[in-house]
Design goal:
Helix content of chain A: 25-40%
Shape of chain A: globular
Order of helices and strands of chain B: EHEHEHEHEEEEEEHEEH
Structural class of chain A: alpha/beta
Oligomer: heterodimer
Number of strands of chain B: 12
Number of strands of chain A: 12
Strand content of chain B: 25-35%
Largest interface: A-B, 90 and 74 residues
Strand order of the largest sheet of chain A: 1-6-2
Radius of gyration of chain B: 20 Å
Strand content of chain A: 25-35%
Largest sheet of chain B: 7 strands, parallel
Structural class of chain B: alpha/beta
Strand order of the largest sheet of chain B: 5-9-4-1-2-3-10
Number of helices of chain B: 6
Helix content of chain B: 25-40%
Largest sheet of chain A: 3 strands, parallel
Distance between the termini of chain B: 44 Å
Number of helices of chain A: 5
Shape of chain B: globular
Amino acid sequence: MMRWSTHGAALTTVCEQLPPALLLFGATQGAREVAPRSAARLGAAFVHNGWIENQNGHLTIIEGSGETAAVLDEIEFPVVVTIPPGRYALARGDDEAEVEVVNVAGAVDRFERVDDDETVPSEQAALVLAREEDGATQLAAARSLATALHGAAQARAAGVTPVVISLGAPVYEGLAEVRVALGPSASSRADAHYAIEGDAAELASKIAAALAQAPTSGGKS
Amino acid sequence: VSKATPLRVTALLSGPEDAAALRVATSLGPTTAVTVGPEALDGLLRGALAAGATRAVRVWDDALSKSDYLALAHTIAQTLRALLGRLEGSPTVVVCGDRGRGAVGPAVAERLGAPHVGLCIGAELTKGGIVARCCEGSGTVRYAAPLLSVLCVPPSGTPIASASAGEVELWTLAQSGLNSSELAYRHRYQPRPAAGPTARPRTFTDATALVERLRADGLVRVTT
């Protein structure tokens, strides 16, 4: 996980060498620690859970979404923005892209990692919901899916919306769960972050099978 | 930490949901509760006194109503210096609630030149400094730092109950060694309320593509 103690010196060095007008972070738990400190160090404005939109050739920064959104017309750059998961398509890097390694001179004042303390379990438990009526095969697939996604499966009573997988998401800040809607149900998609089309009864096992395969992207994103 | 240089603990509060920050602070030692805001926050500070804080300070000036997170952080840092004297190298812990944008705590640390750590759920003093217990992944990790340090504590448990008894000190910017013109350059950008983009799920037709995206977004545990 990104911490100021591990990433602060590098970010500071890079920002000194290449002063950014716009510095974007995924809205992860780590970014919650690092992004505002970076903003403070840059003297930048800070936008939480933002959108960056190109409207008529003009870069517009929006905080929040839907009816609670606010357009930040008067914001001055530099700006540090955190972006929630799933909001934009993944960028695709260039195979020929040049990577420059920057030496980090000195270290920030920091907390040093002492040890893992497993005596206190995380309060954020992952959860995959499946219908009891889905049967053992479906629940087994859901459990496999949940394990791969940091959590556990839990059967729910029949009659509830069956097609939402809820994932405890220690990765993303401010989200108790990341929701993946399975199948065509519009109601379950209303507040989902990801959705997949198809027969809900088959999707959990297909996803579990895909999770069992090695990553294919090779880290290029 | 000794009798000659007693530990100074400050809890930065902005709402009743910062009860966990107050609990962490008071578990370390006598705690001064500090907030930046209007008179309406006096009940919160009195509640903090009832919950174990030994001193309560509210800083306010109308200029702060137009200030951004960095001006608030600058104000808090200057107030702490005025309250506590020299901070650098002294046994001081600042504990702040970590809610909403979560920008003020890290910015205070930056203004103090102090290390900070987030997702802190507990802390204990050691001979050389402080050890913070922090959520990380599916468990917790301990981090150590010398004092002066800033701990950012996410909300949990019962909120601070507002109280009507207890002395709250009202500080002006001048008492914090500031004037309003110093904060003018950090005016909060004025948002224009407007219906923004509506968040919609990123939709896939293929399970492999979905899983690749979940992996790219860091949601799939890496197994070896």
